[in-house]
Amino acid sequence: MDEIISFVLIPAFYLLGLGAFLPFVPVIAALRGLALVMQVLAGYGRTVVGVVHRRTPEFQTIAPYRPQDEQVKAYRNYFFGPASRDLRQILVLERRSYVRTVGDSFRAVTSGQFTAPARSRAFTVPYGLALYLGLCTGLLVALPPLAVLLGLHAAVTALLAGGARLLAGALRAVDRAVLWVKHLRTGMLCPHCFERVPYPAYDCPRPTCRRRHADIRPGTYGIFRRRCQCGQRMPTLLMLMSRDARLQAYCVHPHCGKPMNTDAGHMPEVVIPLIGGRAAGKTQLMAAMLLSLERAAENGGPALTLADEESEANYQVLREVLRMRGNTRATQKTLPRAHSFVLGGGRSRRLVHLFDTAGERFVDREETDALRYARAARTFVFVLDPMAVNKFWTATDPAPGPLLDRTLGSTVDPEEVFARSVQAVAAMGAPLKRARLAVAISKTDLLAEHGLVPAGLDGSEARTWLCEVLSLRSLVSAMELHFQEVRFFRTAAVADEDARVDDSIEGFTEWCLQG
Prior knowledge:
Layout: H1 2-21, H2 25-54, H3 82-115, H4 121-141, H5 143-181, E1 188-189, E2 196-197, E3 201-203, E4 212-213, E5 225-227, E6 233-235, E7 249-250, E8 269-275, H6 282-298, E9 304-306, H7 309-323, E10 339-343, E11 350-356, H8 365-368, E12 379-384, H9 390-395, H10 414-427, E13 436-441, H11 444-449, H12 459-469, H13 473-482, E14 485-490, H14 503-512
Parallel strand pairs: 8-11, 8-12, 12-13, 13-14
Antiparallel strand pairs: 1-2, 3-4, 3-7, 5-6, 9-10, 10-11
């Protein structure tokens, strides 16, 4: 009887149970395969969160982009490198996660159902085989959705990276268009080296950092904001800088690197060079022009603001000397630093650069070659001292009283100064045929005291006086030949104790700043 039970009944019941189990095999396999698919996809989700958000060491397979390793010490924009790096990391980590998840699943079935089952193998082996079938199906079924997710991730990354580059390019184009509207298409003028700066460098605004960023425009290191290595954020566009939060601009030319005006790039620029021989009165005339603009601003005219501390300091000295009717210190022979100021308000603001250059530079060809700022000028001022003309001393009759001291005048012939300076400026490519020239006949207050200049000398009368009395017809003809428009002015660069300048300065200054 035992043999019947052992070899007939038990096998029969086992086979009957096995037959009853077989219809459930597809269900078990499907469920186990679905579980494996979900495990794989959940692992992908954890990988994405770990790589993109958590960024802990176990999710880093490729060295990150560090600001200290960059040529520009700033953090890269996510879509200019880090996004593709994260995608590569996800591919590597997901491959490892897929292999690990499938392997762990097979090992768990092998251990639990074959090598160390909790029950008889007669029951666990069929179940284990069903699980094996589900795992084999699941590892194949998991590949298409995993590939789709990775493909979507890659497509979205590529799309956003392309969009970020298009947006950066568009913002650069808008910024460039704004500069064109401000007549700065060739760049901003450096007040030290006189070269055009296509785009200045800027220092990090954090006082404890001050790292210099050569090009902050939208691109690799930021679209709307750039983040410095120290963590400080800075705007990437000039139009995003408010007047109270403007960064300090620096010249990008290797031989310079000096600070530029903080208003550079935010408004149109006007360059006005003052040309004249030594002691012709250029510095006093420039001081009188600034004082005239200051008085006009106080009386409701265009606002005047000195553009930098150096211009402010120099102007205060010149203003006091002019008020005291003293003699200004001779302009140094070194390259001049522009006297810069902002004129006007709102959209009419202009950054004006006045250049007062030592007279010695206008009689030496090698010296005039350094006056590169003249290339940006469309209005020139030629300061003509009548006392520098020999004909002046023989053609005019002095008034009774003390004789005029000849040492107060310039010792350089105006014709020589004009010829050398115009030749040098033309060689630099300045469009003189489209430029204007204001001829300022200087020191007329001193000459009028001695009766050496007629009253009402201005405009056509001044031109006639220069041609007929001082025999400067050839000089006047040369001026009118080289420049599109020439205007002659009588100027007296003096001020009273209340800082009111001579009436001749107001009209002269207004004409120079027209347009």
